[in-house]
Amino acid sequence: QVQLVESGGGLVQPGGSLRLSCAASGSIFSGNAMAWYRQAPGKQRELVARITNYGSTNYADSVKGRFTISRDNAKNTMYLQMNSLKPEDTAVYYCNRALPSRWGFWGQGTQVTVSS
Questions:
Q1: How far apart are CA 65 and CA 63, in angstroms?
Q2: In angstroms, what CA-CA distances link 108 with 6, 60, 86?
Q3: Cα–Cα–Cα angle for 112, 115, 116, nearest 5°?
Q4: CA max distance for the chain
């Protein structure tokens, strides 16, 4: 069954950390570049980080040095380690294929709120 299931979000204070997980079906995950996206209140969805099947990564400037994307191909799971969180990181975080032409649907997302 095709699925994208994000988890690990929550409420944290500025400077805190969270680790997000994305459990994907093999048909979505296997052999494909994947990405984390986020949508903040009142804003369009944006690309946060991207990872290829073999582990090459890139990041939005706003998160570079603070976030780390990784994947476990054996588990069809992708992760986003978020450190030094800022209020502007507050958003719903989604995972999906890195290629927009291969977006079939979106999962439920996981809410990250960074607030004092």
A1: 6
A2: 7, 22, 23
A3: 150
A4: 40
pLDDT tens for residues 12-50? 999 999 999 999 999 999 999 999 999 999 999 999 999
Distance, in Å, from the CA atom of 76 to the CA atom of 61, rounded to the nearest integer, reads 26
Q: Which residues are registered as beta bridge partners of 22?
A: 6, 78
DSSP string, the chain: ---EEEE--EEE-TT--EEEEEEE-HHHHTT--EEEEEE-TTS--EEEEEE-TT--EEE-TTTTTTEEEEEEGGGTEEEEEE-S--GGG-EEEEEEESSGGG-------EEEEE--
95 pairs with which residues across the strands? 36
pLDDT tens per residue, range 50-66: 999 999 999 999 999 99
Give me the phi and psi of 85, to 5 degrees please: -65, 145
